[in-house]
Amino acid sequence: MSNGKPRVVITGIGTVNPIANDAEAFYDALIEGKSGIATLQGYPTDNITSKIAGQIKNLDIAEHISAKDMRRTARFSQIAIIAARRRSSSPRCCPTWQAPRWRWSSASGATTTPR
Questions:
Q1: Which of 20, 62, 99, 109 has its CA 20 to 30 A from that of 54?
Q2: Contacts of 53 (CB under 8 A, 6+ apart)
Q3: What does the DSSP 8-state code read for residue 4?
Q4: How far apart are CA 75 and CA 61, in angstroms?
Q5: Which domain holds residue 78?
Q6: What is the pLDDT of residues 2-45, one digit of tens each?
Q7: Assigned domain for 105 exists
């Protein structure tokens, strides 16, 4: 702790989202003002009001997760696993000192529209 507050160090970022599938491309797309919102693709839209969404594109999950694990996990979990692995492979993720496992953390988020 420093000044009575816990210190936090971000050592890696992994992201998979509608704008880009890695942290560097995501940052560049944000700077350029790109939007990940587009017309829905691959889903029937006859019975829903909105025809637009932020969908993840150009991501082959089979490149990152085994067929067995793909059958056992939901898509949002698969995407979270890919993002976490990318964070773990970030150049600054593995510091030269070895911290106890309980000192490491990973945060993820996903949103869905209620039916």
A1: 62
A2: 37, 38, 40
A3: T
A4: 9
A5: 1-91
A6: 577 777 666 667 888 899 988 888 889 999 999 999 999 888 88
A7: no
